[in-house]
Amino acid sequence: MFPIRDHNPSGRTPFVTYTLVAINIVVFLASLQYEGSPRAMMAFYADYALIPRFLSEGYGFSGLFTSMFLHGGWMHIAGNMLFLYIFGDNLEDEMGHVGYLLFYLAAGLGAGLIHWLSAPLSTVPTVGASGAIAGVMGGYLLLFPKARVDILIILIVIFRVIPVPAWLMLALWFAMQLFGGWSAPADQGGVAYWAHVGGFVIGLVLTLPVWLRRGGARFWNRTEGHPPHPETEYAFERSRVPRVQSRKHHTQVPRIRRK
């Protein structure tokens, strides 16, 4: 289950969201030059990824920022940029371009610090924008809980797109991150669940002043929990997505954590 679009385009061009997507893609493509050499990639991660052990020893703090623009594979960046594209534009519309950019960076930095606190001695490099994007999702939940989001449900060979309210999709996502955080070792490779949880909560808290300035609960009453723009209607039909067999790769790659 994952979102593919919402029904609420922003009222103005989301330049910051588009720029962030472009920067992440350009940096990812540039990093592909290291893919064939695990040693070169580990040296690259040592310079630019978030490595909790480094922070605990008093250096590597720049990784809190630079790690937000690195990704560990095609699916990693595709998923993150899809989430940013879906949820970022409406938040940018409400916060303004500069306010939204500062919000995004603050959520990403906060998510990185939460990840460090969850595994301060880990030497596994952590990369990805999803701590910051989780912050965007937390802000979206507070401002637009009833916005409609289309999600793709995949049940073995059944593919179906259904619209659900944003609060349901985001609540399920957050619950999955909490479950993953409690069940998976924080100092191993894989998904940096606590960065997701931390980013989401930080984003929600940072959005509170915006929500209160709009009138708090009165803002929800005026907008009915939707972005204040006309909804876009889509024609729904069953998706026909071909099944692709996975191919095995024999080149060893460094272990990292994705967020």
Description of the molecule:
- With about 260 residues, the chain is mainly α.
- It has a single domain (about 1-240), classed as Up-down Bundle (Rhomboid-like fold), CATH 1.20.1540.10.
- About 55% of the residues lie in helices and about 10% in strands.
- The strands form two sheets. Strands 1-3-4 form a three-stranded antiparallel sheet. Strands 2-6-5 form a three-stranded parallel sheet, with no helix packed on it.
- The chain is globular and about 55 Å long.
- About 40% of the residues are buried.
CATH architectural designation: Up-down Bundle
| Arithmetic mean pLDDT | 87
Instruction: Give the low-confidence spans.
Output: 237-251
CATH topology (fold) name: Rhomboid-like fold
Number of individual domains = 1
Portion of residues in beta strands equals 5-15%
> How many H/I helical runs?
10
Topology at a glance:
Elements: E1 2-6, H1 15-31, H2 38-48, H3 52-56, H4 63-66, H5 74-95, H6 97-118, E2 126-127, H7 130-143, E3 148-155, E4 158-165, H8 166-183, E5 190-191, H9 193-213, H10 217-223, E6 257-258
Parallel strand pairs: 2-6, 5-6
Antiparallel strand pairs: 1-3, 3-4
Helix pairs in contact: 1-5, 5-6, 5-7, 6-7, 6-9, 7-9, 8-9
Tag the structure with descriptive keywords:
mainly alpha, 6 strands, 10 helices, Rhomboid-like fold, 259 residues, single chain
Could you give a short description of this structure?
By secondary structure, this protein is mainly α. Helix content is 54%, strand content 10%. It is globular, with a radius of gyration of 19 Å.
